[in-house]
Specification:
The protein has helices spanning 28-43, 62-77, 90-97; strands at 23-26, 49-53, 56-60, 81-86, 105-108. The protein is α/β, with parallel strands linked by helices. β4 (81-86), α3 and β5 (105-108) form a beta-alpha-beta unit.
Length: 120
């Protein structure tokens, strides 16, 4: 089994809360809605980084991968970091398959904190 990299904090603060986690299938039909929300968060004043929880994503199409690549570039251009929160799931696997995993800051979380609610 391949050991995947894990990101454990950039030392950049403040970090925005994870307020709109992604879940389910990330298809091209959903990317416009997700893009608008994510780009607003990236460009919000006062944020040095944006954390995006993708642990509940079950699959992601190429359009979703392209969205993440574009969001990462937009964040870097704005002097910010995009940090993905995953559990070695579908997004991590898709980024690995697209040969771009090494470009992303990913915090791999093995279990969901019970105080967060949602599925474990």
């Amino acid at each position: 089994m391949t050991q995947l990299p894990s990101y454990r904090g950039s030392g950049m603060t403040p970090t925005t809360d994870v307020d709109e986690p992604w879940s389910g299938d990330i298809t091209r039909q959903r990317t416009a809605e997700l893009r608008d929300s994510l780009y607003r968060r990236i460009l919000a004043p006062g944020n040095e980084s944006v954390r995006l929880d993708v642990r509940d994503v079950t699959s992601i199409e190429r359009a979703g991968i392209a969205l993440l690549i574009g969001a990462r570039r937009r964040a870097l251009a704005a002097g910010r970091a995009l940090v993905l929160i995953d559990n070695h799931g579908a997004v991590t696997a898709a980024l690995l398959g697209a040969h771009v995993l090494q470009d992303f800051l990913i915090e791999q979380v093995d279990q969901r904190d019970p105080s967060e609610g949602g599925p474990a």
